[in-house]
Amino acid sequence: MSQTATDKTILVGKNLILGYRKGKVSNVVAQEISFCLEKGKLTCLLGPNGVGKSTLLKAIMGHNKPIGGTLVFAGKKLEEYSPKMLAKKIAVVLTDKVSTGNLTVAQLVALGRIPHTGWMGSLSETDRIKVEQAIESTHIGYLHDRRLSELSDGQLQKVMIARALAQDGEVLILDEPTAHLDLINRFEIMQLLRSIAIDQNKAILVVTHDLEIAIETADQFWIMQCGFPLTAGVPEDLILDGRINLLLPTDKLIFDSLSGKVQASNSFKYSTITGPEDWVKWVKTALRKNDIDSGNYISIELPSAIEKIKLISKNGEECIDGIGTLVEKLKSMKSGSSH
Ligand SMILES: Nc1ncnc2c1ncn2[C@@H]1O[C@H](COP(=O)(O)OP(=O)(O)OP(=O)(O)O)[C@@H](O)[C@H]1O
């Protein structure tokens, strides 16, 4: 489904055909790619490995011209911008590690000004202000004079974002900025990007495989899937109308709209499990993971406080003191009944 352009739209892709040319032969990677990228929003681009996400980023950065379709940036065709002009408008953070460990944080962030100063140019007062603003808005002032080689992966990622911000383009593109980071840092980086999008009115486009964190932070999803047009929408709408399942083209997995998680789609019925909602959810998860269906028991009653789990089976009624023991018990009943 294509989006409609609004006054926030900065970049429009129309019927793009993406791929690579080798001599006269074009190898098409993805097609029917249409979108509107909006300022003031965090947009997450999701899709399986190899579907063409990085290829789309390369097209937007002007590094790999689409085989077909049009890209329009701020009302003008992308191909009409010189690489120098484009570098001032679109800042990029790629996944590659920096090999300039000897530079300090402030020196690296200052490199973001190169499109404005040139390689040999010295920083003007405006450039210095932009660098300090970028450092401040990524909350890395405490790292100002540290060497890059002394930073953790999470700190380094914030420095790379600061460098892109110093570039002061209207669009910021990041390819998997949370790869290699722990859960807390993944959240922090995505929340930081969202606040930058809103506070600085930037259009931020992030490629990520982190579905759950993307749901919590993104304003827009773009979903790429082999053989389908690009699907764009607000994550919550895509969840409720089921289009989120485009990300899971196998009937073995399904997106559970209540928990917001991907889970195995086996058709076991667990209607005989009763108790508090959180207990029911986690007992079902454990049973599903262990391939235990309701044929193994008559009912399970879950504790409301610190009582024990009550299992009613063909062997009678018994009290059990945890989900681990319950699973073991049901597994042994299952193997017993199959012999
Ligand atoms: N320079 C290139 N020349 C030819 N084919 C390429 C080139 N780069 C990528 N491809 C091919 O294009 C297809 C899409 O690759 P791309 O890197 O865009 O996927 P992706 O969705 O970003 O994957 P991932 O999630 O694994 O990063 C793949 O089949 C890949 O082999």
TrEMBL record:
Domain annotation ABC transporter: ranges: 11-251
Keyword ATP-binding among UniProt keywords: yes
A molecular function (GO) term: ATP hydrolysis activity
Official protein name in the record: ABC transporter domain-containing protein
Pfam families: ABC_tran
UniProt signal peptide: none
Record flagged with keyword Cell membrane: no
Species name: Rhodonellum psychrophilum GCM71 = DSM 17998
Keywords: ATP-binding, Nucleotide-binding, Transport
InterPro entries recorded: AAA+_ATPase, ABC_transporter-like_ATP-bd, Metal_Ion_Import_ABC, P-loop_NTPase
